[in-house]
Amino acid sequence: MTASPPPIPSGYLAKIAWHWRHNPKADLWIAWFSIPIAYNIMGICYFTLTHMMPPPTATKSQAEVVEFLTSFSDQIRVGFGVMMISLGFLVWANGLIGWLIMRMQVPYAKAWGLAYMVAMCGGSLTGAYMSGFTLSLAAMRPDRDPEYSQLLYDVTYLSFDGTMGFFLFGSLIWTVVILTDKSRIFPKWFGYTCIWNFTTEFLVSTAMITQDGPFAWDGTIAFYIDTVVYIFWQIIYAIVLFYAIRRVDVPMDGFRRARSGNVPQAQPEIGASLAPQAT
Amino acid sequence: MSKSLQDILLGSVPVVGLIWIAAFLVFPGITPMSPQMTAADVASFYSDPDNATNVRYSMIVFNWFEIGMVPLYAAIAVLMQRMSHRSGPLSYVYLAATLSSACLFAAANCFWIVAAYRPDRAPEAMQLLSDLGWICFIVPTGFLIAQNLTVAFAVYLDKQVTPVFPTWVGHFNILAALAFVPAAFAATSLEGPLAWDGALSFDLRIWSFAIYNLVMFLVAWNARHRMLEEGEPA
Fold first, then answer.
1. Is residue B190 part of a domain?
2. Residue B64 in 3-state DSSP?
3. ipTM score over 0.95, yes or no
């Protein structure tokens, strides 16, 4: 079972096949890959098809809302269809991060991990699903009574911003565990960047009150600054997670024992982390 | 622990399944409402005392039992922790994917109850409530797809002498994931197979979901009982 590994082949597909068969952390990498793939698909849908980002102005009159829905009806509906599928995979990231938090050396690590998972999964309900449903419904029948179209339009953009609490608590949990963790799965500086991510959730709150200006849902502060910080943080998050997976200690189970002879020399930290431990 | 107590969790699944089928046949199963119905049609549908009664009673039963499939998914998550990659994250990834599905079903339930509650509302409002119910019921398949693919990956990676689930369960989950894809696009058309009363978005989605739960119940039941016979702690 611990025969030395075949060398990592050079072809792109062959490399993937090698990792599928021999990488002792294949299960972690499967979960990680959902992040670059699903976030990119969602980002493209949000920016090019569904008109969620950048959002249209909140000051549109009922007639303008109807005109917006009529002209982008197909784009919005197809965009949300694609997004509805990719959304499920974002939740994989929450499971992976929750699991990584459970591996940290923090008191009640398991509870922190579960709390993170539950808090972040809830965010997808209002932030992504509800806004997707209401805008696709509005776009599906642009001939609806304009008053109701405007209602759906408002629900869309306000519920999109209405994930504040989920992300606030998710980032807060991440900040606390990273800054108190002794195992250094995540670097401390990343814990500080989580602080700016959760402060952006306070910036968004003004969108619930104002319809115009920098604090509205399409404003410089409530949308642009917030989104730039969030996207920048999201990129850092994917990279930091990549290194966290390479660094994390996974207890030896049958899967990893069978593959531990197959650790590539180029990644000594994986090999080091696979020293047998009591499970 | 007595033998019968061991089976309460999974044993509840077929009972809930039968109740779901019964409630579903009352509403919205037999005659799904077409998205082409005008606002006036929708309003008169809910004003008809027979329909209103069906919607109300079916939705009350669904409201009681809508979370009832969760024991099956919890049991699958626990079985995933018996796979060879037991110390890895896949069972948590699976659990994360199951967390949100039931809540959206609850939202659909709520919109339909509200529609049937005051059918004398303006027809446009009735249509909006009914639309919201339908879209929450049919469209959110992303989490189901993620759930299926997690099980598939977990099964493919589980290399034990006797794996927890046989390999065909992995293939079956991929197939189920594919069957759920069209429903995500139900909002793109008012007629044809993609519409929310159409063959792909409605029939394929509902049948796949029913068959999927039935098959996963049977394999989970078998896997658990095989483990109990092999002396694993219950």
1. yes
2. helix
3. no
